[in-house]
Amino acid sequence: MSTRIGILTGGGDCPGLNGVIRAVTLHARQTYGWEVVGIRNGFEGLYEEEYTDLTSREVQYLLSRGGTMLGSSNRANPFAYPVKLPDGRVEIHDVSTRCMENLARLDLHGLIVVGGDGTMSFAHKFVERGATRIVGVPKTIDNDLEATDYTVGFQTAVQVVVDAIDRLHTTAESHERIMIVEVMGRYAGWIALTAGLAGGAHVVLIPEIDYDPARVIEAFHRRHGRGVSYSIVVVAEGAKPKGGGLSVVTAGDVTKQEKLGGAATHLARVIEQATEYEVRSTVLGHIQRGGAPCAFDRELATRFGVRAVELIAEGKFGHVAAVENGHLVARPMDKAVKKLKLVDPAGELVRTAKGVGIELGG
Ligand code: F6P
């Protein structure tokens, strides 16, 4: 039987996943003559045994397409999996043993797991349990994986937010309004701060710095005092006021993470109650995860995909492809899952924001 490798994409989708699938398939087939099996919907497909053969022909148009042709699921936790019983009830089961058996049956030379912190921590658990032939590719618009400077999807999300901020500038100015834009990123402020810098926002609120509403309002007063009667505020979904909590839409449980949302609405209410300013808020939501990947993410996806195949060829299992100071490197998988990479409140990015007068609220 010929050598074959597998690939799955898990967790929330993002632009660039298809680029990874394409690069893996092309490099594995053309350079090594390996077959490539796509596992559908993340670890769900491993449990349900939903596979598809990936050929060079099938992946030829994928580079510029957003989403993932393999599908993804952010409820596919094999260690706490919602199993539908014959009577329609759903019970949470640990299905990891069955996944390990299916993996053994697939008899893969290596499995490439493309994921964020959740998916990568499942992969790491499988490695610890003896499914050692796994390597990882980091993806998430949140850019919060400690192992790498950049994850696939982040730069596209930032570009989407910058485009939105550019549009909000003109309407905010015309109507002399405070425009708040809520962006994703979960507990990390990378999207908010990077896009805030690139879009020329006046206030940026990130999860790593609890904000004082009085300071934010003072920033608007200062701008008005200088004759500038509009402001752009970027608020990360995970930002919270000093002494206050996160804005949560749905609580998490063993099968899923909590769903954040409402930070912009909360802030708008606080500003309106304390001032005469007119405030509007925009929640960009999943627009940040959809559509075509930007050039950076296409390139990164291709480099990561090729490197992941090479990690298998070199027998460097239990590692993820990563970017460090502009170079592609292999980092141990546990480095990708131990803790989230957060914005350093005393770091260069924050200092730069302060340097150009952006109010960070704390
Ligand atoms: O982790 C990626 C991400 O887009 C977060 O920024 C966001 O909080 C979350 O996923 C949204 O998840 P869902 O697609 O389940 O609404």
Summarize the structure.
It is built from eleven helices and 15 strands. It is an alpha/beta fold and 362 residues long.
What brief labels describe this structure?
362 residues, alpha/beta, 5-stranded mixed beta sheet, 4-stranded parallel beta sheet, 11 helices, elongated, binds 6-O-phosphono-beta-D-fructofuranose
Number of strands: 15
Kindly state the mean pLDDT as a whole number?
Answer: 96
By DSSP (H or I, 4+ residues per run), the number of helices equals 11
What is the rounded distance between the termini?
61 Å
Low-confidence stretches: none
> Compounds present?
6-O-phosphono-beta-D-fructofuranose
| H/E element order | EHEHEEEHEHEHEHEHEEEHEHEEHH
Alpha carbon gyration radius: 22 Å
Helix-strand blueprint:
Elements: E1 4-9, H1 17-32, E2 35-39, H2 43-48, E3 51-54, E4 81-84, E5 90-93, H3 96-106, E6 110-115, H4 117-128, E7 134-138, H5 154-175, E8 178-183, H6 190-199, E9 203-205, H7 213-225, E10 231-236, E11 248-250, E12 259-260, H8 263-274, E13 279-283, H9 295-313, E14 319-324, E15 327-332, H10 333-337, H11 348-355
Parallel strand pairs: 1-2, 1-6, 6-7, 8-10, 8-13, 9-10
Antiparallel strand pairs: 2-3, 4-5, 11-12, 14-15
Helix pairs in contact: 1-9, 5-6, 6-11
Bound molecules: 6-O-phosphono-beta-D-fructofuranose (F6P).
Task: Explain what the structure shows.
This protein has helices at 17-32, 43-48, 96-106, 117-128, 154-175, 190-199, 213-225, 263-274, 295-313, 333-337, 348-355, and strands at residues 4-9, 35-39, 51-54, 81-84, 90-93, 110-115, 134-138, 178-183, 203-205, 231-236, 248-250, 259-260, 279-283, 319-324, 327-332. It has 362 residues and is of the alpha/beta class. β6 (110-115), α4 and β7 form a beta-alpha-beta unit. Strands 3-2-1-6-7 form a five-stranded mixed β-sheet, with helices on both faces. A four-stranded parallel β-sheet has the order 9-10-8-13, sandwiched between helices. The mean pLDDT is 96. 6-O-phosphono-beta-D-fructofuranose binds next to β12.
